[in-house]
Amino acid sequence: MNILVIGGGGREAALVYKIAQSNKVKKLFCAPGNAGIAEHATLVPIAADQIDALFLFAKNNHIDLTVVGPELPLSLGIVDRFREAELRIFGPSAAAAQIETSKAFSKRFMQKYKIPTPEAEVMPLHEAYERIRTVTMPIVLKMDGLAEGKGVCIAQNVHEAEAALAAFKGRGGTQILLERFLTGVEATFFVLADHDKGIPFFTAQDYKRLLDGDLGPNTGGMGSISPSPTITSALEKEIMATIVEPTLKGLVAEGAPYQGILYVGLMLTAEGPFVLEFNARLGDPEAQSVLRRLQTDWIDIVDAVLEHRLDQLQLAWSNETAVAVVLASAGYPGPYKKGEVILGLDRINDPVVTPFHSGTKKEGDQILTNGGRVLCLTALGKDQQEARERAYRAVDRVSFHGMQYRKDIGK
Ligand code: GLY
User: Fold this and answer.
1) CATH of range 185-312; options 3.50.50.60, 2.60.40.1120, 3.90.550.10, 3.30.470.20
2) Is 206 touching ligand 1 by the criterion CB < 6 Å?
3) What number does the ligand 1 atom closest to the CA of 277 have?
4) Is the pLDDT of residue 261 over 90?
5) Is the CB of 279 under 6 A from ligand 1?
6) What is the pLDDT confidence band of residue 151, given thresholds at 50, 70 and 90?
7) Residue spans of beta strands (DSSP E) within 146-258
8) Which fold would CATH assign to domain 119-180?
9) What is the pTM of this model?
């Protein structure tokens, strides 16, 4: 098979690494990819939002399967476009992906289908300036629409809420959600979904805040562990019954059936699991820890979904725990500099550590930083502690100017 992976971050590095292991693959391409991805796939210089160019590339290069990594091409309707031309593609349609791409749609949907989620109000941004003076703090503010991981803020007071609204305005936000703040443990639950059928795929825990101890601003994710230590099999059954099944049936009823990987971001509270957000894709950096543990051929998984055979799919996982630590540029998640030389990647030489590249590019013999999140060092171990020690041993060998990372992933 000829396969095209769309995207160029750490998640796509993990997808390419996994897909390259399949003996069903003839040619593997990634658009646009990065310096690490180039070790396993031919890079195609087309950005992930260039739907027409990606479509032409797939047609002209006899691509048998396209796998979409990020949400942007999903929101632009890449799956609809490919399906109309009967090109095989793995991911949800633009209508189904609204569960991620419009927080207002997602909240109204959950309210309509009685899926447990914190209460929230949706309003135009200008009205939110008044409303934040009357709500109980802390409050969660969310921007409707895609915000590259910067669309959520937990405000402790009116001053912080105003700053969040100003930032959302700067990103073009017009609709805002004000959501009740819940306390509990966050966990991510991933489902393989095909219309009204879904099976549990895996669990992970993401470390969203920039700094140790869950302090500092939200980021796209500074590390992950898999499996999640908090999701037991009893809880998994509860999540499937109270959240996943009504969600998939609800999307079918709305005329937006879901096919692909559904990311359920949860807050586990004393009153049970609540959905904080849905995403229409694999998480980044959850994909890195999870795909290191997955033993089943990725192509078999995709085929089972696309051919409506999910009930026959047997998933095999390593019993080991994976810990993934993100190395980020100075300034991230705010403005950051690119082009710093990365040293020490050749010193990692530990077969249980995979240095997935997130934002890198090659110039001559050098690998340079090329994004906010630069690398995601991912290690396996017999337990969380062993995986964590191995990941951090690798971190100690790598450096670039201004490198920042959390020291408590998997602690
Ligand atoms: N790690 C969170 C996300 O991928 O959205």
Assistant:
1) 3.30.470.20
2) yes
3) 5
4) yes
5) yes
6) confident
7) 152-155, 175-180, 185-194, 197-206, 209-211, 215-218, 223-226
8) Dna Ligase; domain 1 (3.30.1490)
9) 0.95
